[in-house]
Amino acid sequence: MKKSVHTDAQKSLQSLLRSLRRKAGLTQVELAKRLDTPHSRISNYERGERRMDIVQLRDYCLAVGITLTEFIELFEQSIE
After folding, report:
1. At 23, phi and psi to the nearest 5?
2. N or C: which end of the chain has fewer CB within 10 A?
3. Per-residue pLDDT at 3 exceeds 80
């Protein structure tokens, strides 16, 4: 398994994170405030410079108004 931030799946993940945040009508700064985290962390997630653990991903999802299960379904669709 290739461990790289440059895989197609990683690029799909980054794109999905950005898309969901924008669909929720949030800027990176607004989302960072909801998550009580630095703005730079959101930027790093969306650019693939930082990876999330499952708990952080769940928090991100809830902050943009979807469940982790919904996110996984969207992610699977995006990489097919």
Report:
1. -60, -35
2. N
3. no
Domains, in order of start, for the chain: 8-79 (1.10.260.40)
The two three-digit tokens of residue 66, written as one number: 């979807």
Residue 13 φ/ψ region, left for φ over 0, alpha for ψ in the -120 to 50 degree band, beta for the rest:
alpha
Supply φ then ψ for residue 48, to 5 degrees. 80, 15
pLDDT in tens, 20-77: 999 999 999 999 999 999 999 999 999 999 999 999 999 999 999 999 999 999 999 9
| Residue 7 Cα to chain centre, angstroms | 15
